[in-house]
Amino acid sequence: MQGRIQEGVLEAEFQAATGWLLPPRVANRLEAGVARQDTVFQGVSLWAFDHPEALADLRRRAVEWVRRWPEPRTWELSGYLEYLAGDWAAAARAFMASLEQEPENLDAWVDLAFCLKHLGLALGESILFDHDLWVRLQCQERGPLTLASLNRLHSQVQKSPDRLEATSVRWVEPYLDIVS
C-alpha cells in the first residue's frame, strides 16, 4: 500500500539494514541561496564506501521503499544508491521522479545534472549552469519529467536571454573592446 512515510519508519528500516543513521533530508530551494543543503548523499556514500558488498541489497530495499512511499525522500535515496552503483540512467529516473513532486529542490536538480553528464548528455551541463531557469520552468509546467520533457525545457532555457552563456558574453564584452 502506497502512502506517506510515517515519521521515523524509513529511518528505522535504513538503520536496521545498514547500522547507520539516515541523515535528515533538507530540500534546497533557490531562495535559500545555498549550493547544497541535503547531507543524505554524503552519509550514504560514506556508508557505501565502508560496505560496498551491501550496496546491492540496499538498492533492492530502496526499490521497495519507493514502491511503498513514492515521495521525494525515497526517490532521492534510491537515486543516490543507483548513482553509487554507477547506474546513471536509474539514478536519473529516480531524481526525475523526485523533481516531478518537488521541482523547486535545487539539490535534486544538481544530482540529476551529474547523472546526465555521466550519460554523456549536454543537458546536465545546462542544468548545472542555468539551474535557476530549469527550476523556474519546471515549477511552471509541473508535468512528468522524461528525457523528452527535459529536451523541451532545454530548448526553452536556450531561448532565454538570462541564461548564463548569454549573460556571460555581456559581462566579458566590455573587456574585449579594450584589447582591440
Summarize it.
This protein has helices spanning 9-18, 40-50, 55-68, 72-84, 88-101, 106-118, 123-129, 131-141, 147-159, 164-179.
Keywords:
mainly alpha; 68% helix; 10 helices; 180 residues
Mind sketching the topology for me?
Elements lengths: L8 H10 L21 H11 L4 H14 L3 H13 L3 H14 L4 H13 L4 H7 L1 H11 L5 H13 L4 H16 L1
Report mean pLDDT, rounded to a whole number: 89
Task: Note the gap between the termini.
Answer: 69 Å
Q: Indicate the structural class.
A: mainly alpha
Low-confidence stretches: none
Helical fraction: 55-70%
The run of helices and strands is HHHHHHHHHH
The value of Rg in angstroms is 18 Å
How many discrete structural domains?
Answer: 1
* Biggest sheet character: none
Strand content bin: under 5%
Describe this structure in words.
This protein has 180 residues and is mainly alpha-helical. It has one domain (9-179). It has helices at residues 9-18, 40-50, 55-68, 72-84, 88-101, 106-118, 123-129, 131-141, 147-159, 164-179. Helix 5 (88-101) runs antiparallel to helix 6, helix 7 crosses helix 8 and helix 8 crosses helix 9.
